[in-house]
Amino acid sequence: MKIIENINITTFSEEENEKSIGQQVVENYRKAEIFKKYGIDFCCGGKKTLSKVCKEKNLDLNLIMNELNKAESAQGFASQNFQAWDAGFLAEYIVNTHHKYVKSAIPFLLELTKKVARVHGADRPELIDIATLFADVADELTAHMFKEEQVLFPYIKQLSASHVNPATQQFPAFSSVEQPILMMEHEHEAVGELFLTIRTLSDNFTPPESACNSYRVSYSKLKEFEEDLHQHIHLENNILFPKALELEETSVV
Q1: What is the CA radius of gyration of the chain?
Q2: Residue 217, domain extent
Q3: Per-residue pLDDT tens over the stretch 150-209
Q4: Domain total for the chain?
């Protein structure tokens, strides 16, 4: 009996291993914490398979798969099953949760990173780079969210509504929702790269022992911002955008 059980687990792991990282998180949100633990990107890099990422990062694939198998057997909460949500509702959730967080966090972090760079930048030049990089992140995300809220998300909500009532269907200026989606995904990658550089410069947001409170708070807040950004991008790239493409493909012409 033990041999049979081991065979079943191995077969299951191999099947899961061929799924993209993003898809695994879509199916079970608990896996996100495991990927995060090993520094595996499940948002911008979510289209890669786990085996490919483990080879790139020289990680123990079997060790990670064992942890993922445990997460697979754990029960989740229906309220966190984003995959089951209506696309229009999910778009509203992203705006009211993640966009709202970003808009409130940006002014505080801009001020704080500039202050820390001004006070400590002479001894820690990486702080000047971090302040500059976060300013770039702020500019990118502000423009990015505006486009989503004014153009892409209203169309996704309209697509969702017309799926229930075809009479409400409207046609956008672009030929397909795929065009703005590709643009948003590209911008996600750009912001992700900026934050990866911030993480590297800050030694994974680890302040030196001598750091003042502002220094420590800036790193803690940057870490929090990045964590929210990962979930934000995951919900869009891996769940909302595929839903929108499917809705458009099945919509009545």
Answers
A1: 21
A2: 82-250
A3: 999 999 999 988 776 665 566 666 678 999 999 999 999 999 999 999 999 999 999 999
A4: 2
